[in-house]
Amino acid sequence: MVEASPSRANMGFIGAIVAVATIGGFLFGYDSGAVNGTQEGLKSTFSLIPGSWSPTNGLGFTVASLLIGCFIGAFFAGRLADLMGRRNTMMVAAALFLAGALVQGFAPSQIIFVIARICGGMAVGAASVLSPAYISEVAPAEIRGRLTTVQQIMIITGLTAAFVVNYFLAASAGVSTAPHWLGIAAWRWMFLMQALPAAIFLVALLFIPESPRYLVSKGREEKAESVLASLFGRGIARAKLDEIRATYSADHRPRLSDIKGNGFLGVRPIVWTGIMLAAFQQFVGINVIFYYGATLWQLAGFTEDQSLQINIVSGAVSIAACFATIAVIDKIGRKPLLLIGSAGMAVTLFAMVYAFSQGSLDPAGNLVLSRGLGLIAVVAANLYVIFFNFSWGPVMWVMLGEMFPNQIRGSALAVSGFVQWFANFLVSFSFPVMAAKLGLTISYSFYAVCAVISFFLVQKLVRETRGKELEHMEG
Fold first, then answer.
1. Which of 92, 210, 229, 443 shows its CA 20 to 30 Å from the CA of 81?
2. Average pLDDT over residues 309-314
3. Calpha distance 108→312 (Å, rounded)
4. C-alpha distances in angstroms, 216 versus 12, 128, 233, 456?
5. How far apart are the first and last CA of the chain?
6. H helices of 50-184, where?
């Protein structure tokens, strides 16, 4: 086995590559969080109805339409990454980020907004699976977890940046629906601001190399060896090239059918593990807080201004939790972190359920919490966010980027990424209706039960990948 240790690697070059790749994570977070705080503008401008399922006038569908693009983008990005390369596919995603931000900001109608949101979602889905996979394919095994976790930090940084920008835009305009710069409503600027980092991402991708594992899969071994030499030095480039070559099938290039095996429904067990991780990362309800945080806290009795400030606090504690993950993920491993996260999320979600269940309803049917219950809800929510971002937030993406054998990585990422974003869509699309029809108590009970289930699934299905070279992943 050839180990590309950090002491022999060109860490300056690898660090620059990671910095560029994780701009995709920043945009993933920003695009996901930009809608948080724009609901009032969307409702008033496009006459949307919060409790409606309709694709033409429902707030839930309009917000969640991003996720339609996400699961399409995640699936096709995994396949395109095998066909045209990791870097080239990320460049397509960067262009979609840019176009989606501009059109969402200027959209004259709900249908145009939804189409642009789906296009932006395709970029988010692509970035979500490709950035961690690309980082895993260029990083030394000893620190791969830490470097891939930077992706989650950038996702949360993007979310927090969106929360901060939204807060100051709404504050400077008075309310989010008021006219702001150039007479354009503040809520529209919340989408337009994403165009700047999208343009930076598109240009920066021109300066990083293609993944050496993709190059080997295409038979471009001379170029692959050159990239490996730049990453890890000439001394081990040839041996590493031979090791990578041995993991690819001699009779065909990677294809979707490679995920077939002796598992359930004829699919490899390792792919089912990826599907489980992808689905339950969403079933615990994290994106209800990220997408509907402002709406959630207003339902719980806080003002719009207070709700936006709570979002910023949630983003800040998320970043701190991710830094804690970086410190321990390559020391204690991935599986222990997932188990800690599942247990912590279950406890804090049930605490939120308790607070919501003890609230009262005002004459309009809105939930009202006492000061003490409101404090319990806010503290529990932020602890929940900490547990998620210490564990399932970054660790799921780390594992999806590294757990699959080279031959099936692109195809397994396509399937797992599709499931992750489809689950995200289901949760985000259903929340406004669940909150309106069933209330927050029942809605959050569902997420809490899923957190409990995830603990036992991790115990049974997940195998530790800490410190293993990608060429020695099994499944």
1. 229
2. 75
3. 29
4. 24, 23, 17, 38
5. 18
6. 59-84, 86-106, 110-138, 144-173
Taking the C-alpha atoms of residue 182 and residue 185, their distance in angstroms, rounded to an integer, is 9
Tens digits of residue pLDDT in 349-364: 999 899 888 877 666 6
d(CA 302, CA 257): 51
- Please tell me the distance from the alpha carbon of residue 183 to that of residue 204, in angstroms, as a whole number: 32
361 bridge partner residues: 367
> Which pTM was predicted?
0.82
Q: Report helix, strand or coil for 227.
A: helix
Tokens of 377: 């809800």
Q: How far does Cα 417 stand from its chain's mean position? A: 10
CA distance 57 to 44: 11
Strand partners, 260: 267
Tally the residues of the chain: 475
pLDDT, tens digit (0-9, with 9 covering 90-100), for 258-271: 999 898 899 999 99
Hey, which of 289-293, 308-312, 316-320, 432-436 has the most confident mean pLDDT?
316-320
Q: Where do the structural domains in the chain lie, given as residue ranges?
A: 11-472
- Take residue 113 and report the two structure tokens written for it: 């907004």
From the candidate CATH numbers 3.10.450.50, 3.40.50.720, 3.60.20.10, 1.20.1250.20, the one assigned to the domain spanning 11-472: 1.20.1250.20
Q: Do 280 and 128 meet the contact criterion of CB atoms below 8 Å apart?
A: no
Can you tell me the distance from the alpha carbon of 408 to that of 419, in angstroms, rounded to the nearest whole number?
Answer: 16
